[in-house]
Specification:
This protein has about 190 residues and is α/β, with parallel strands linked by helices. The protein has 8 helices and 7 strands; from the N terminus they run βαββαβαααβαββαα. It starts with a strand and ends with a helix.
Length: about 190
């Protein structure tokens, strides 16, 4: 539940590690430091249930990560990107320009994210809505709060969050300026 940049720059100061048994019936806190606040939060139930969904789907997703991706949360507050369809469209529109800046992003796929309305964190309602959304998406945005993703590895989670953050920052700039920033043509993207 840390700020995304804090987690990316200094991961061992921002989280605890919980392992889930192969059948999903047991879990163990592997890494924690109560003095520094690195203990499971009440959101642990949502994380464990996300693992259960991945197991049910026979998915290789073994990492569930929650953080506060500030650009994405801010973008979802803008009326032009406040619905799931419009938010995902705004994010997708930024990919051609980002491909030209970072060739590594060419292999990346920006998956559609689920957008849930503001719900009090860790309530039964939020957990239920999140589990339904995770049945169809690898990423769920809780409006005004943060993002939960599930992927096979921690680097996969971090790459996905970083890509969403960069796309959200560019999309938010577009919306605030009142115009769409120039994007490369399809031919320019194909040349890469």
């Amino acid at each position: 539940g840390s700020r995304f940049d804090d987690l990316a720059e200094n991961p061992d100061s921002s989280f605890c590690v919980v392992s889930v048994g192969p059948n999903g019936h047991k879990f163990r806190v592997e890494y924690r430091d109560a003095e520094k606040g690195r203990v499971p939060t009440p959101g642990l139930l949502t994380h464990l249930l996300a693992h259960a969904i991945a197991r049910r789907e026979c998915s290789s997703d073994s990492v569930v990560l929650h953080t506060h991706v500030q650009n994405l949360v801010a973008l979802a507050r803008h009326p032009a990107a406040s619905e799931q369809r419009t938010l995902n469209q705004a994010l997708q529109e930024q990919l051609p320009a980002l491909f030209l800046q970072d060739r590594g992003l060419i292999e990346e796929q920006l998956e559609s994210i689920a957008v849930l309305p503001f719900l009090v964190t860790d309530t039964q309602c939020q957990i239920q809505e999140t589990l339904v959304a995770l049945g169809h998406h690898r990423a769920v945005l809780w409006k005004f709060h943060g993002l939960l993703v599930r992927y096979p590895t921690l680097p996969d989670c971090m790459r996905s969050m970083r890509l969403l953050d960069v796309c959200a920052s560019a999309a938010f700039s577009d919306l605030l300026s009142g115009k769409i920033l120039e994007l490369p043509s399809g031919n320019q993207v194909a040349e890469i």
